[in-house]
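Bug #77: duplicate submission created two jobs. Keeping one. Sequence:
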Amino acid sequence: MKEQTTKYINEIETLKYNWNYTAAREQIEKSLLRYTDDYRLYEELADIYLYEWNFKKAENAMKYAQKLHPESATGTYLMGYINLSKWDFNLWVEHLLRANELFPNNAEILRNLGWGYNMLGETNKGIMLLKRALNLSPEDKLIMEDLWVALIWNWDVDMWEFYLKKAWKENKIFELRSIMNL
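Kept job's structure:
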């Protein structure tokens, strides 16, 4: 069954990537008529609701997905985001730590985990995780941007300038130096 739905999952991912959430949701509904017990379809639905800022529907979809497969790394990651929407940074980080155990060395999980630690005030730990994420995905501009913000919080001027340049955001250096009186 999972092999058959992989095609649908890929189609849904493509629609989401192109910001076509309505069509993605329709594809999920169509797929659920045939594959009602595929937790991945509920995770996809939750992901769409998160993009649309409909956190209650995202949480409901994830609760159902977790009943079907409680050890899903993606589901754990998404539950972290649902808790982030509630401003519960501790629970967000807790879910991301679990997602990292289930799917180690995933740059996106590590990026969010690093950012979570920054939000909890553990900036050095956050920077370490963000650097690890960047080692795994050296061209990822989101990681670079999160890293330079964390470095600003840590007042590591030389390093945040380095990552701003690497992320093609050199135009921000003068602006940030002015704001920070550097």
